[in-house]
Write a structure and sequence with these properties.
This protein has 462 residues and is mostly helical. The protein has 23 helices and no strands. The longest helix has 38 residues, at 126-163.
Length: 462
């Protein structure tokens, strides 16, 4: 018991250290990416993908970008004219992330502006003020995301303990290159934490709490909603009306209410959010290998069809056969929504890797590690696309341009390597789950609490 507590504490400390590393990598004031001549290392959606694009790039000088970004131009002009105001996402400007991210974003940006901006400031120094606000906002965001990262690691340790899995599996996730690069980058670590706590609650038979946490994960990054399909079917299969109703109530409260509130609070911003996801192109998606272009309605239709099919197939996994089967169903449902998605950004990997490290075996382990390395390499190569093309042009013909989304880009070759490797792992896990987690005949129902005591173990801790 003492050794186990020490091992848990050590891994939590390592998780905190990884968060510090991730913070330093993307910190705009340290500018590590510029120092090593690779902006991809420094880039984060928090600073450059959202803040700078909203408050620095989208100005009246760039009219099309300004009017496509700002929903309330009056507030924009007040800020641009040196008045201390705090624009709100969805209401005053378009925001392309789900409501829990928007709520956190509103809190940190308003706090950062309160700290940095005087009541009135010289508009000639607008950019310098906004860069300072961006730095403070990044620190506040990093603190919040790091807290979720640590909480997610704690939940993963609990899940590993319930499986009898060695804690080195959790350490494998914590120290992975993708974890270090993408933890303080976007908000997927938050969604992963909600998913892990929701899964932990499900394994303990806490239906309401599980539904609530899965719903909150979906209100953060949508993908966690995928686990609701096998979970709800499990309650239906067991004819557990009370469990189903409580899980559904939690799911609605955590997953539907935030979107309803957003739609009522800022209907135009809500519609912009929906349109953003509906009109997005193939970002690192597996279908680009076959379709050979970034924009196509075919890959969207194919993506939706395959995601639906694979998520539906996960209901064939009988989760009452043991907690290992619950983990199989959770991983496969989430992987279906990620691997077959027409948007497979590298940070989405953080929603797969925590569960993947608990279930990969044999050849799947090195395959997963190489896939993780490739996933980490996507952003490192992203802004070096032109340089990579020039280097490769010495050996074969390749278009010389900066277009990392193009099917012929070396960036996409890295992304497709990741996609195909994780697809191979997905297939192997699915075959194994079908072998060990499907009922050969009807047997009496066992509650999640009962299954915790009699499922196969994976090996001792720590």
């Amino acid at each position: 018991m003492v050794r186990e507590r020490i091992a848990r504490a050590a891994i939590i400390v390592v998780a905190v250290c990884i968060c510090v590393v991730s913070f330093a990598i993307h910190d705009p004031s340290l500018s590590l990416g510029k120092k090593v001549n690779d902006f991809g290392l420094q880039y984060s959606d928090i600073v450059y993908g959202v803040f700078m694009s909203k408050f620095v790039s989208a100005t009246p000088i760039h009219a099309s970008e300004f009017y496509s970004t700002w929903l309330n131009t009056r507030v924009a002009y007040e800020l641009l004219n040196g008045t201390h105001v705090c624009p709100l996402p969805y209401r005053d400007y378009s925001f392309e992330y789900p409501p829990l991210v928007g709520a956190l974003w509103a809190l940190t940006t308003c706090t950062a502006m309160e700290i940095v901006l005087p009541q009135h400031f010289n508009v000639l120094f607008y950019k310098q003020y906004m860069e300072r606000v961006a730095e403070v906002n990044y620190v506040l965001q990093s603190i919040a995301i790091s807290a979720f990262m640590v909480l997610g690691t704690y939940a993963l340790l609990d899940i590993a303990s319930s499986l009898g899995a060695p804690y080195r599996r959790v350490l494998m996730y914590v120290i992975a290159p993708s974890t270090a690069i993408y933890s303080i980058y976007n908000w997927d670590a938050m969604a992963a934490a909600f998913s892990l706590w929701g899964l932990r609650a499900f394994m303990r038979g806490q239906a309401l709490r599980s539904g609530l946490l899965i719903g909150l994960g979906g209100s953060t990054m949508l993908i966690p909603f995928a686990f609701a399909i096998p979970a709800m079917y499990d309650y239906i299969q067991r004819r557990d009306v009370r469990g189903l109703s409580r899980f559904t109530a939690g799911l609605v409260l955590g997953g539907a209410v935030p979107f309803i509130v957003l739609a009522l609070f800022a209907p135009q911003g809500f519609l912009r959010l929906v349109d953003h996801y509906a009109s997005w192109f193939c970002e690192n998606c597996i279908f680009i290998v076959f379709i050979r272009r970034e924009y196509s309605v075919i890959y969207r239709a194919l993506s939706i069809a395959l995601m639906t099919l694979l998520m539906t197939l996960t209901i064939s996994i009988d989760m009452s056969r043991g907690r290992q089967c619950i983990i199989y169903a959770a991983f496969l449902s989430l992987a279906s929504a990620v691997v077959m998605n027409y948007i497979f950004t590298p940070q989405m990997w953080l929603m797969l890797s925590p569960l993947a490290v608990l279930i990969v075996r044999g050849w799947e382990v090195p395959t997963f590690i190489v896939a993780d390395l490739a996933n980490a390499g996507i952003i490192l190569a992203f802004f070096k696309d032109l340089d990579l093309r020039i280097a490769l042009s010495k050996f074969f013909s390749i278009p010389i341009q900066q277009n990392p989304w193009s099917p012929v880009s070396p960036v996409q070759w890295i992304a497709q390597t990741r996609n195909l490797l994780i697809l191979a792992v997905f297939i192997a896990v699915f075959v194994r789950a079908l072998k060990h987690c499907t009922a050969a005949q009807f047997k009496p129902y066992k509650s999640p609490e009962e299954t915790l005591s009699d499922s196969p173990q994976m090996g001792g801790n720590p």
